[in-house]
Amino acid sequence: MPRILVVDDDPDFLLICRRILEAEGYHVLEARSGDQALQMMRKTRPDLVLLDVMMTTTLEGVDVSREMEADPQLKDIPLVMVSSIATSEYASEFPEERVPIDAWISKPIQPEVLVKTVRRFLGG
To answer: With contact defined as beta carbons under 8 Å apart, do 109 and 82 qualify?
Structure first.
């Protein structure tokens, strides 16, 4: 069963993702911060990461994606960024240079978009 790590500080978002993904047969792990996510990834390597941008800091998810890219053990894990930053007052803070992600999903998520994106990387 493929493991998906969902990283978000919003418990409601974690619950929604868990319900959608478990119904599709995926095993869901949860982290509420970037630091917790990186520790979990290094301990129990997920098959895919869904990562929020804005958590403890405005660009915490961007920092995590860059750490993943720099780590030989993590750099090949598919990374899907899930965020509402593009429609928030923080949109201008999002870096213009390339952010190391494989896909982007805007919040609020549509379940069919989430499942389609996950299947693109993991099948199912």
So the answer is: yes
Model pTM score: 0.90
Residue 67 tokens read as: 């750490």
pLDDT, tens digit, 9 for 90 and up, residues 53-81: 888 877 888 999 999 999 999 999 999 99
* Among the ranges given (22-26, 45-49, 63-67, 91-95), the one the predictor scored with the smallest mean pLDDT: 91-95
- For domain 3-122, give the CATH number: 3.40.50.2300
Q: Give residue limits of the domains in the chain.
A: 3-122
Residue 24, judged by CB atoms within 10 A of its CB (0-12, 13-18, 19+), counts as middle
- Upstream peptide bond of 108 is cis (omega within 30 degrees of 0): yes
